[in-house]
Amino acid sequence: MSDHASTLREAETPRTDEYVTGKRTPGVALLFHCGAPSSLVLPFHNGEVEVGRGTHGMVPDQRMSRRHARIQFDGRRFVLTDLGSHNGTAADGRPIAAMQPSEVQRVVRMGDSLFGVFLDIAPLLQRGVIFVEGKVLGPALQEVFALAKQSAQFGDTLHITGESGAGKEMVAHAFHDSGPRHGGPFVAVNCAAIPQGVAERLLFGARRGAFSGADSNADGYIQAAAGGTLFLDEVGDLDLQVQAKLLRVIETKELLPLGANRPHRVELHICSATNKDLKILVAQGRFREDLYYRIARPAVHIPPLRKRIEEIPWLVDAAVKRTSTSASVHASLVEMCLLRPWPGNIRELLVEVRSAVQNAAIKSSGRIESRHLPEGAGTVLRSLSSSPDALLDEPTPTPLPADKSFDPADYARIEQALRSHQGNVAGTARALGLHRTQLRRLIERYGLDPQRYVQETGGHKLDLDK
């Protein structure tokens, strides 16, 4: 990745006190420009910024007019006005009429340049986006990495929360690499993929004769991670009996394999992660309260990719460069990626961008455009009761609440899921991987009405909670 009209900096250990506290600072940042990612912050003057070809120190975009558009913040929303440009302006993927102010919630396109609007631009202004060891770190991830490194130096556990694909294992590696046992092994275990009947044997190991077929000693994952770090992904899926034995290992630093007569000493760091709420699992009796207090602090939360849009152009650019040495990235591809909610986060984005590169190659195109992105990439899948290949249709927008904490991508994701499940809150919560109570809080925050999405069936409305 090249340092192009951006605040891309050499990697350094970020300070945890760099964030501005108190009042947020709304602003605009150039995210993609002349075929390359960027994170150049454009300062507001009296609540607005005017953008044109070559302004603010940008390399001239020949498809932009000298006075192209104005972006304002009126205290609760961003307003975009095209100033009569030759090639037009788009707000969140929709062309707008000249001299007609239009609300923009996420992305502005002018020529071949893309701009993001941020309710708080200060973190991006202070930290920029860094690219280190193959990882793209925006301000939020830099903060998470700083906390993970600090935890590794002063403790032996770290708990990571976040959606699937958001980068939990990447943070776990940072925790391992920053601690005193960085020279030891890093052993990652997907607890959700371990059958309950063998979880104890796989984690703690077994001695010869411990069970039928055990004709030799076998070390488990904990022993394999001795002297290093054990990463327990989706730790909430562990069986309660296994949780009890894990707690003993953490507290006593002693490991007792199946069939062994006496425990032996084991030194290691334990990093856990989940996309579930462990507090809810504890309340439901599915997770031990004593284990929760032992592993759930300190904790870091990884925001989903849709809340870290400044990283998306860099991730797209890197994925294309790893897949093709000659193809270029067109602004339409990045614009589409910025506007999608990406429920699978980084993992999904990289897979779909690689597919776009392959589609472009099949069509003998040296430029990767939005039309090469697989249909429905980055959108919320329908519930399993529908066709597994079916994707949500684009919804008709509903009036948006004037809320400074409003997240347009999150709103769209929940609204799409409600529409798909005909207003059924329980089904929507399952599809989004949320607890029903969490979903109801979000519905209330965003002013959504589940009844709006209920389809009349024989004159009777559906039961929304079943």
Mean pLDDT: 84
Biggest sheet: strand arrangement? 2-1-10-9-6-7
- What fold name goes in the CATH topology slot of the domain at 139-301? Rossmann fold
Number of helices: 14
**What kind of sheet is the major sheet?**
6 strands, antiparallel
Low-confidence stretches: 1-22, 382-404, 456-464
Query: End-to-end span in angstroms?
Result: 49 Å
Question: What's the total count of β strands?
Answer: 21
How much is the radius of gyration in Å?
A: 25 Å
Per CATH, the architecture of the domain at 139-301 is 3-Layer(aba) Sandwich
> Percent of residues in helical segments?
25-40%
Instruction: Assess the beta-strand content as a share of residues.
Output: 15-25%
Large-scale geometry: elongated
Question: What is the CATH homology-level superfamily of the domain at 139-301?
Answer: P-loop containing nucleotide triphosphate hydrolases
CATH class of the domain at 139-301: Alpha Beta
Structural class, from secondary structure content? alpha/beta
